[in-house]
Specification:
homotetramer, 339 residues, alpha/beta, 7-stranded mixed sheet, 6-stranded parallel sheet, 15 strands, 37% helix
Chain lengths: 339, 339, 339, 339
């Protein structure tokens, strides 16, 4: 067996720190040896020191040039993802990249080509695949015991509105939020989406329409294997992170509801109350993030394909583009129009 | 207070007998005085006698001509519904009619016009509105305490395939099965559907495609009030009658799951088992049928509008037509193209 | 097959009318031909007429003397139960008797002896045995698939306090309320109670202590088959009728929770609310009462033993006596001290 | 604010390593500087190195004598707990001790007296108090919004039988297993137990009776505040770790069920399956162990009383002794007979 995988992390913002903390505390196969963040400051330095990480710099090149480093986590802003993947690949590093690689398919393909040329692993950060609930749905479907999938359903609602400043540059609901669900339906159905039809509406009065964006959406899909799918999204559930998946098959159905804060029931003359869903993705997918990192380490150590690979970097983006086009043009859009 | 409403029932098949039994045993305000069924036989006669119903004949005219009769339940085959409504109205009887009134909008309008001219009540048999679960969803939405509706979701799956002989003449999944859900989304959203987009697939291998029909469908909808909706259907759940509704609103969500056979949980080393949903509509909507009949009696006695009236006889049929057109033409269809 | 069982009902109070209505409307094998109630008045007469029952009188002898009557439902006040059973038996009628037969074991035994001598059926009104939930627990245990029972648990709480006038003459919580649970544990365990130990407390401040009674109780039991059991009771849950049963066995556990008013969940920023349990026994055990009556008819028609027979008339009363003694003396009490 | 609390851990067996790993990875306020274990071997050394812990020895004195160490975790075998507490206290270290301190009340009192004399904190390892579910029950009761507690219920079942070699020296079910539940009922009721009555049975055929021990038990309790309580235990649920708590109060009830492996439901023609409870305490109380350690650090840093203190080291042991006596003598036993 190989020694620990030595990891450099690019970007020490919210998601970067999440990965760093998990790698240090909960992924024994990993050793974080370096961090590079253009906004590096004393606070980041203290964070790194505290976790025993010696090398901190502002320049990603310090990581690419470090011959000790086996793998890189790309946690920068989205625009830089594709370039970072290319440079990491050229330096012979395995790459884990947060989603999406890019919002331009050509850039994604170039980044992927670089990893293929270099013969390094590429894993894309669709973390929900590592969640115990959604994985259970996938595993039951994939086992074949329910027969062929007929209907794939995903409900995905964020707890509350993001600031409008975020919405302004988010890329729109389909690319920013539904993209996770597009990966999920591919994962659950075991098939590729061939056509989508999207409805959207700005109903909350928060101002989404000024960005031609919506807070509420429903997207229907057709899959190569004949199954149909549907996703419903809301930017604001108000009661927590609502993430339910369901696949109805030839012989029955598998579905998962939300993880709740606790299993309590409080009964009085007035009401019976139960707990709310966990509030947001950090609570809900806490263990999934750890599993995701472990899985990447396994792929490197055992030289196997990552669970979420290059194709998964392309397809959800393409589906999101098709959905946006469908919404704008008021008609179903085939993936062949995009790819 | 008026005396008992004297009722004549047209058609003593499965659904006719259901209404007769309910009216006799569970609707104190009603008195069934006559049955007319073209296929009247000894067995029907015995059924009637057993319930203390004196008058049985093959000719509906015996009911229309009976001056004692206040109201008529139309439980004949679908083709005859519109004509029966007209004749009942012309005879001055209030009319309860099973759904759909007709699959031709012109026929429906003529039937409705007859009831309006005669000044009699018309109630259409969308029984699910009287179900304790769906009614709860409706009532919470209608109360306004969750704010404006954003997303209306209905999952509706029959337990098992009908014989292909039934499918051959059913009118297709949208008119035969989804029609109930189209009424339901109108009821839950408190708004009218303005556009639909339907996907369908024949996945079970049972032969639906030979009738240009499908066993699996997803239908998206837009509503006048801005909300979006989605229905998913399957002809065969295999685990029972799956009827779930949900409305996500401005301030939260209300949803109902299935009534189960019992509240048991059996835990062993191998599995934890709970009960299945009730098997089919007779079990699930047993009490709803009684409530439906009581409500019709109340409308007559108190001279109020039935909960499910003339417009409800028109709209679900029109939406079903739009959905079928959308499925055939592969594009969203506005209701204005139909009405 | 025998014709309809002709039934006379003694007592037309709340529970009597419940049985009468069920027998008339929902038990096709029964025909209620006569009612006798010492407090017979016009309102009772109207109730009877409305259901098509011709014979009404104040004197039970009118029922005993009627040669057409096959079976008698004893729904009088508790004190009269034993005498009515005896007289009915002597008149050759099968007897259904509401629980308890008497609070004196000698009286119970005399009544039972009369039915045995006359060769008529005796069924005692422990209605919960016919509830779909508790029956499921029983059936799973009785099937043997979970192995031998180890722990039998019953939680039984009434929704709200009875008036103190009721408590004054109720016979105490063990005889009035827990008696149902004592029958239930026998039914679920498939075994007889050999020893009980009871704790009780008057905690609500409602004045139970002035009658040496309690509003809260826990009772442990030993069974002949080695299993242990426990019941917890409260006179006032405040949230509805709380009736849960559970049997833990050699290989696993079967448990049932409450039937709820509906399957709704309402989620907002403040709370997630679900429905309350059905409010009281009339709602909860509505169908069980019908099943109970049908089962009695079956026993008569097929000449089989009633599900709840003579021994079930004796044992719960004896256990209640033992529990009361245990509570008063602060020690475990063996059933052999009572029987 | 004080610097990190420097911790020495006595005992590096299963529970010791659990605490060490948690302290290092998940409790930022703690720094584990030393381990002492009489069975220290290379494997333990490697475990320590891996976590960056420099000092490892076989002799606890190396920890007591280290002036840098602020606090000690006593994770040795039970017999040594009391002595270790005393020596740690005399060395001026705060002490966290796994439960029970001792099975002899005199020894417990001496250990506690030593900590009081030294003015150091003592926290006892009743980890369940830090579980999100049971804490929710406690918090709701303690808030007073449901009024005074009437009934406290705990169901606690281990997933499978321990080896008989373990049972031989376990001290019996009440001291080994129910002791956790005795602490739990005190925590939930907010009151002390004044009397217990225990039933037990060896039903599994595994040989418990040869050690005068049982695999199944029910224990009733009276509390100082008037409430009643009941615990049911099984050594083998077979379906996972079953840990449910419930408090019925003056105005309603709060209850928690088990955490499950996932939120999946799989519905087919044959069954509807849901997930099993998490398998054992390590899965179920994983986060509770972390909370427990954090809470101890907080108590040290802020100089507050630990949530689980000296009295909690005495009372559960005394109740377990009373329960064992009750079981042996077949009568209720007052705590005043023990204390």
């Amino acid at each position: 067996m190989m020694n620990k995988v030595k990891v450099g992390v690019l970007g020490a913002g919210r998601i970067g720190r999440l990965h760093i903390t998990n790698l240090v505390q909960s992924v024994p196969a990993a050793e974080v040896v370096a961090i590079a963040d253009p906004f590096l400051n004393e606070e980041t330095q203290a964070f790194a020191n505290n976790l025993g990480i010696a090398q901190c710099s502002k320049d990603p090149q310090d990581i690419f040039a470090n011959p000790d480093i086996d793998a890189v986590f790309v946690c920068t802003s989205t625009e830089a993802h594709a370039e970072m993947i290319q440079r990491a690949a050229e330096a012979g590093k395995h790459v884990f990249c947060e989603k999406p690689i890019h919002t331009d398919l050509e850039q994604i393909r170039k980044a992927i080509a670089a990893t293929e040329k270099a013969g390094v692993k590429l894993q894309v950060g669709f973390v929900r695949r590592f969640d115990h609930n959604h994985k259970k749905v996938h595993d039951v479907v994939a086992s074949g015991k329910l027969g062929r999938p007929h209907l794939v359903k995903v409900c995905s609602r964020d707890p509350e509105h993001q600031p409008m400043s975020y919405i302004a540059t988010s890329g729109g609901i389909f690319m920013d939020m539904t993209i996770h669900d597009f990966d999920m339906v591919r994962y659950l159905s075991g098939s590729e989406v061939t056509e989508v039809c999207a409805y959207g509406a700005a109903l909350s009065g928060e101002g989404y329409d000024q960005y031609n964006d919506v807070d509420t959406a429903i997207i229907m899909m057709k899959f190569e294997n004949g199954a149909l799918g549907v996703i419903d999204n809301s930017r604001a559930s108000h009661y927590g992170y609502d993430q339910r998946t369901e696949v109805h098959c030839d012989k029955g159905c598998v579905q998962v509801t939300n993880d709740l804060d606790d299993q309590a029931m409080i009964s009085t003359h007035e009401t019976v109350e139960i707990a709310k869903p966990t509030w947001f993705f950090l609570e809900r997918y806490n263990n999934a993030f750890i599993q995701e990192a472990k899985d990447f380490m396994d792929a490197i150590i055992n030289d196997t394909e990552p669970l979420v690979g290059a194709k998964d970097g392309v397809m959800p983006v393409a589906i999101a583009m098709a959905a946006a086009k469908s919404f704008q043009e008021g008609r179903p859009v085939k993936l062949s129009e995009i790819l």
